[in-house]
Amino acid sequence: MESSGLEGKELEIFEVGPCESAYQMGFLIGQRFSNLIRSRLARDLILQEQLLPFAQTPQAQPLLKALTDNNKKNFPSCWDELIGTAEGSGVPVLHIILINFRKEIVPFLPKNKLISNADCPDDCSDVLIVSDSMAMVAHNEDANVALVGHTYLIKGMLSNELSFIAYTYAGELPSCAFGFNSHGLAFTLNSVPPIEDEIVAGGIGCNFISRDLLEASGIDDAVTVQDDNSISRQRRALVLPKTSKNEFLSLLGDMADTKYPIYMTGPILYTLCTAVIDLDEQTFSIIEGNPKKGEASHVFTMSSKEFKMPQ
Questions:
Q1: CA-CA distance, 34 to 168, in Å (whole number)?
Q2: How many whole angstroms separate alpha carbon 75 and alpha carbon 256?
């Protein structure tokens, strides 16, 4: 994979709020990361070569209107935050809409014009364990290679005193990846692509649902991913040792399967980082680079609203 020059960039955290409105929060985030958002949009071939041309066609108009109307109606504050992000960053609102609804638009792109990786799902890997000796979750965040170096952490503080920390793709709503809040709720997200018969135009965007999760007090949803990539990684995980925290991190760093590695380094999908939720220690850690090394770049305590870094 060709180097982007951004792989070694330190993951930045931006504290924002309490804000008077969702629009203001989005505006401040967009303003702070304007250069990074612009860089991400310029590098995103799916946006430039597929989504933007499609958005100019008559076929796209009913889909974009349905997505706009349904999500604005069901999640008005999330919509306001999205608009604020666009206007704060100084990029066209349409561009921000398209990257936030990429997963909901790609199935409707003309199949004969798709670029090779346009419909490739963003596959992530999770390990969850509860035993007498530990309770933890570890998660590899995998995404299109255009996202390398184009992510940041948002510490959002709301007017109702709720706070959250969310790993965020430049220009997208926090978090389409993983996060936690001051209720003690932490979550990670995995790709669960629908079968063709389940795809409905204009549904609720997964970015809006995940943003809403950041303000939730609990969640009991369970998901299964049944694609070849996920099945292969699950089979590989079954044969690896899983009795300690280090062994779980080594599992997420495994690259033995060259076609479907658990830890991905391109050319299409790339493991951006690994999140570790330690329920015993009440810590939330982010590891940049292969998690086998176990070196966390950020460690937050989940036991206080300030999310202070342990001394």
A1: 14
A2: 42
